[in-house]
Amino acid sequence: MLVGGTVWLFQDELFHPFGDVRACEGSEVQLPGVIRAGGASIPAGASEVHYFTGNGRAQVTFVSNQMPDYLHRAGIVPDGKPLFDEKYGTKGVADDEIKLPDGLCGSSLRGPVWIYQSTSATGAGVNVMVERSPTANDSFRFPTRAVVTYNLP
Hints:
This protein has 153 residues and is of the alpha+beta class. Helix content is 13%, strand content 29%. The strands form two sheets. Strands 3-4-8-7-6-5 form a six-stranded antiparallel beta sheet, with no helix packed on it. Strands 1-2 form a two-stranded antiparallel ribbon. The longest helix is centred in the first third of the chain and has 13 residues. The N and C termini lie far apart (45 Å). The N terminus is likely disordered.
């Protein structure tokens, strides 16, 4: 009985790369405990965190109610600037359900989305896709799911 219980206890870890429940199948590189996506750590308390790594890039998805803070800390939207200014992003797909990029596991995004394309302080490209409110054009869903894609160091 003890052996069966021990196998069951570690079964989840056996099916995730690196024994990390956040890592999606096929990931090549393990990300640290505190994920720095696009030059800033993802918000403390973020939930449903998953990542996929391969070909020198990382894709991270998470849910948080602190998305404006993250976007400012990562330098994607300068402090004091409107989050939905077309200088920093564009309207994306408005479908009810938006599939995650290939390899990335977790729940799909809900449209509409806003897409930010930025350059981090290190000069690397960062793409962030964030769920927008379906009723208010100048706010995010609460909480909101995001997908951040960036080059690994």
